Amino acid sequence: MNKITAAITAVGAYVPEFVLSNQVLESMVETNDEWITSRTGIKERRLLKEKGKGTSFMAIKAAQDLISKSKINPEEIDLVIMATATPDMPVAATGVYVATQIGAVNAFAYDLQAACSSFLYGMSNAAAYIESGRYKKVLLIGADKMSSIIDYTDRATCIIFGDGAGAVLFEPNFEGLGLQDEILKSDGIGREYLKIDAGGSILPPSKETVENGQHFVFQDGKTVFKYAVSGMADVSEKIMERNNLTKDDVNWLIAHQANKRIIDATSSRMGLDEDKVLINIHRYGNTTSATLPLLLSDFEDKFKKGDNLIFAAFGGGFTWGSIYLKWAYNKQ
Ligand code: UT7
Q1: What are the residues facing 20 on neighbouring strands?
Q2: What are the angstrom distances between the C-alpha of 221 and each of 188, 212, 214, 228, 319?
Q3: Is it the case that residue 56 has pLDDT exceeding 70?
Q4: Does 230 lie in the same domain as 316?
């Protein structure tokens, strides 16, 4: 029997309807469309505004989109991995609730938190379960309600982030398609530069932490930018090298959408032509765990069976990495 590889066989997505444009942000904080566009590439982002709805709401919608398009029976799903940095609640895993709500009643589920690299790490997890031969259908969802942890008076962060969700199904493949190689990295030096100070075990919530705004994301953008540029480019170049991929062999770069300039730096180190670099940051901003599956969903029509995709991400922690995957199907 051929070796089992782990292939993506279906995708789904969801973004909320509410659009927050650069123009509206101009009336909220001291910023302007020109600055945001030239420094980040973002034009607008989606926000989940409805009260009482959390990350699970979007994750369920993305999973349902995948289920209805692929016509799989949710009862056949073995495992749901929920990649998110903004779970519904600190305790009671969001993925468990999502699995039950989508009818994946035979699955077990858990959450995976690695900031903006959550989905990339989740791909590694999902693939390993499939390659082991133990499970046949692993649903990986990346979803974040970043608006729940953003201070909309802080121009350093509120212009960047948005809400959204995407989902992929991993299944066994016997033609050698699917995940080929991965380089995953982390470095605790990053914890000072991108974080939420309060609400965890070091600094539990209190009146003071709320008054001091310590439940919002803090980012030292310049420092994170520097590490992101070198981190993402290094691993992407290395994964090409060790798989003997030339720039012509790579069909698509699926890079975390944090800043268009970081993506440009990565693709230029890889020597890729612009038309191979998939971009939707202008529409959604940085949706953290959802950027990679939202790209897959938006550009699914373009992918052909056998195409070489390089995934790359960089996030808080720091966490980063690159994955080489062969696409497994032509969209009907
Ligand atoms: O996804 C997880 C990983 N995160 C990332 O990868 C994000 C990495 N960082 C970045 O993308 C960029 O650092 C930012 C987009 C966050 C900021 O861009 P930057 O080019 O690094 O800007 P900066 O922070 O160095 O600020 C440049 C100038 C400053 O003014 P002075 O000191 O030069 O007079 C800021 O005060 O721009 C000013 N500025 C703004 N101006 C208008 C900062 N934010 C804004 C703003 N609108 N929103």
Answers
A1: 45
A2: 17, 20, 17, 10, 15
A3: yes
A4: yes
Ligand 1 pocket residue status of 35, Cβ below 6 Å? yes
Confirm or reject: Cβ of 96 under 6 Å from ligand 1: no
Residues 144 and 53 occupy one common structural domain: yes
Structure tokens at 321: 């990495």
The predicted model scores a pTM of 0.97
Q: What percent of the chain has pLDDT over 90?
A: 99
Task: Report the domain count for the chain.
Answer: 2
Q: Which residue CA neighbors atom 3 of ligand 1 most closely? A: 315
Residues 236-276 have pLDDT tens digits of 999 999 999 999 999 999 999 999 999 999 999 999 999 99
Identify the domain containing residue 85 by its residue range: 5-176
**CATH number of the domain where residue 123 is located:** 3.40.47.10
Contact between 261 and 269 (Cβ < 8 Å): no
Ligand 1 midpoint to CA 137 (Å): 41
Give domain status of residue 123, yes or no: yes
- Site to probe by mutation for ligand 1, drawn from 225, 226, 260 as the one with most ligand atoms within 8 Å of Cβ, is 225
Q: Which amino acid is at 116?
A: C
